[in-house]
Amino acid sequence: MMERTLIRNVNIFSDLKDREVDKILEIVEKKDFIKDSTILTQDDLGDALFIIVSGRVKVVLMGEEGKEITLSTLKEGAFFGEMSLLDGEPRSASVVALEDSSLLIMKRDEFLNQIRKSPGIALKIMIEMSKRLRRADEKIGSLALLDVYGRIAQVLIQLAKSEEGGTKKAIIIKKRPTHQEIANMVGTSRETVSRVLSDLSKEGYITIKGKEILIHKDLSPVESLGHHF
Ligand code: CMP
Fold first, then answer.
1. pLDDT for 29-38, tens place per residue?
2. Pocket around ligand 1 at a 6 A CB cut-off
3. Which of 14, 72, 84, 160 has the fewest CB neighbours in a 10 Å radius?
4. pTM of the entire structure?
């Protein structure tokens, strides 16, 4: 029997009573995915919702010649695959494991039943979808309006916001994405990301130490002005 805490860690199920959590445990299946495996594929038909118990995934659109753009990364407690279940269209993007990940899978009918039964769950899903649309809007704005310095600064600010760590002097991003991953997030090349990060560290904004990035200065001027070095 899977633990109730697994389910309670999932934001949309956090307020359920023990009895309701046990019901969810009965209708989900646990499945492990190794790093780099594709969990669902853009344009396929969707028949299930996925919930991340542990690990991290990226939501990507694949282009020609192996180009890809990362729309979002999702971690423990997040869900994905709800869009196809709600509107009946094919999968809007592919989802790939960034680390070994353990997921819960809920079939379409069960997911729709949960929504029909519980206005609390429906509301939480709508709140989460609003947050995602907001972020997607920011992304469209930054792709159209900011230069590559601004876009990379924005990614660093977002990563820093999603981490709790830090000291008085610096904010710490603990598990930084690779240069290629950042490139995929902002629609540029790996070489450009390396150049921009090196410029930002020369200017004293950041220090890169192995897997960590320390942010020493407020990056928002770089973000908002599309600052050139
Ligand atoms: P679905 O379209 O069924 O399959 C791909 C999933 O990726 C989608 O449901 C959402 O759960 C997720 N997804 C698509 N676009 C975004 C985005 N911009 N931000 C976060 N998640 C997304």
1. 999 999 999 9
2. 40, 46, 59, 71-72, 80-84, 91-93, 95, 132, 136
3. 14
4. 0.81
